[in-house]
Amino acid sequence: MKTFVSAISLKEYPISEQIPVKTIRKSIMDLIHKEHPEINSKKSISVSELNLYRQKYLSDYLIHEVGELTTLEEDVLKTIEQEKIITTQTEGLNVATDYSYGQRLADKVASFGGSWRFIILFGIFIIIWMVINIVFLLDKGFDPYPFILLNLILSCLAALQAPVIMMSQNRQEEKDRERAKQDYMVNLKAELEIRVLHEKLDHLIMHQQQELLNIQQIQVEMMEDIMKQIKGQQKT
Questions:
Q1: What is the mean pLDDT of residues 120-135?
Q2: What's the rounded Cα separation, in Å, for the pair 152 and 226?
Q3: What pTM, to 2 d.p., does this model score?
């Protein structure tokens, strides 16, 4: 198997991983020259080494744009480096499955308390309460008009229902923040992947142009040899 020596690590790599330095994008080469100023356009490096500097380029770009990298930006860079899907990386961030029994109960109570079913059932309960005390017990029942006991029950229910609903709303806010984080990470990764794709396309175009120039040079040399042969035959 044919190999070549990388100008960065001075290690041997398969010839299939060879990347000529002259085909590398200038922004990436500037990073390489900072650490290896001795490298010139006639040398070559490996694909894996080029990917490392692409990763550094993305990291420097993020630092330049947003300042110090947060945990989210670092996670995005890791997913790009490890070629993972962003949703698998953010699965560990979900908090929806980590609720306690009390929190899940609060969500159910808030869901029921904010439904038409609760309003209808509670309205029926109040009407039955009033009818029993006014009609059947002739306003001499356990809670005669103006229904002081009923008012006390309603006040206690409202006092308990309010914090339960707030607990559920806090949980919903946590879910919304989590979704916003995931959306931000997906959008950021898409932007960085597009930048890498542009860099790879530029590299591919430059590589193809170089190959076309080599083919043209070979064709010119072949034409010159043919012309020499024709001239030699004419002289004889």
A1: 88
A2: 110
A3: 0.42
